[in-house]
Amino acid sequence: MAKIKVLRVVAKSGSFRRAGYQFTSDPTDIPLDGIKKEVRDAIQGESALVSYEAEVDEVVSTETDDTQNNAKKPASSGKK
Questions:
Q1: How far is CA 36 from the centre of its chain?
Q2: All residues at 6 or more sequence positions from 29 whose CB lies less than 8 Å from its CB, including other chains
Q3: Helix (H, G, I), strand (E, B) or coil at 1
Q4: Strand stretches in the chain, DSSP E
Q5: Per the confidence metrics, is the pTM higher than 0.90?
Q6: Where is this region: Disordered (predicted)?
Q7: Which residues, 6 or more positions from 79, have their beta carbon under 8 angstroms from its beta carbon?
């Protein structure tokens, strides 16, 4: 099985939203092939989050439903 390259993100304290994603103290994996540079930069530049690249067999997510890229569901833009 091929490894999946991900950005693994953990909130330092409680729950934290950045770049349309909700992060908690549980790791959230965002596949690198499915993330825009602007989103990645916003997450990696946030001091309230710890993020690092990893290679995994399976994407880790705390979501109970099947969301895009198996990462935390992005917030809606509020536009209809």
A1: 12
A2: 4, 6, 7, 8, 9, 54, 56, 59, 60, 61, 70, 71
A3: coil
A4: 4-11, 16-18, 21-23, 28-31, 49-56
A5: no
A6: 58-80
A7: none
